[in-house]
Amino acid sequence: MVLELIWLAYVALGGLVGVMAGLLGIGGGGIMVPILTALFVVQGVPHEHLAHLALGTAMAAIIPASTASLLSHRRHGAVRWEIVRYLTPGILVGTFLATFIAAALPTRGLAIFFAGFMTLMSLQMLANLKPKPTRRLPGPVGLGGVGVGIGGISALVAIGGGSLTVPFLTWCNVRLPMAVGTSAAVGLPIAVAGALGYVINGWGTPGLPGATLGFVYVPALLLMAPFSILLAPVGARLAHRLPVAMLKRIFAIMLMGLALQMVYTVYSA
């Protein structure tokens, strides 16, 4: 009975992530990682693997959503492919290498980093801070370096990179619709490199539950991914009917609450 409820929780989590992504254009790891951590505690996952398994599973779950988002923005011609070309090598390197750092960190250290980053992101959302477009894009080498940073942080908190890529591009005078579409395009290599890194780093680790690929818990992935894709259009439709600015503030508070809950979970497990 408990296992069936956990399966339902994965389905509900996938749906929630999809709705929030469609409604606010954000979500992903900020929602998945803390809730997955709590569910893994219920399933009896060893304490030392809680954060790693949550991050790896969330990263893999971002792949189908990122693919759908990329295709949608591509159809609308909202992707600056020359930026994607120069950002992607750095993103692949930064994301992949950061998974090795994550694997070497203890669960509590990862939880604190995650909570700190999500709190900063939430405060930025509450204050509605937006960088002023004051400069041009750097050259290929500079974009590659930026990609390493975006990929590295994204891997450590299991996000698609939008909360970092969009502000950077708008700061560099890229129009917001193009910044969002370009961010969606680089979100896919972030998710793929991150998931691959967590699979490799977790391969053969003792104590993980059955049906895992490294630090990716396959049942959760298979239950979350379809519903996140299915319900994302619902969130997009609601965005035209609901007060998104107010919902964004509520979501920011919820993110902080989930991040703190994750810290409490790993310290009390």
Automatic annotation (TrEMBL):
Family membership: Belongs to the 4-toluene sulfonate uptake permease (TSUP) (TC 2.A.102) family.
Pfam families to which the protein is assigned, alphabetical: TauE
UniProt entry tagged with the keyword Transmembrane: yes
Protein name: Probable membrane transporter protein
TM spans (from-to): 7-40, 52-71, 83-104, 110-129, 141-164, 176-200, 212-234, 246-267
Membrane topology: Multi-pass membrane protein
UniProt signal peptide: none
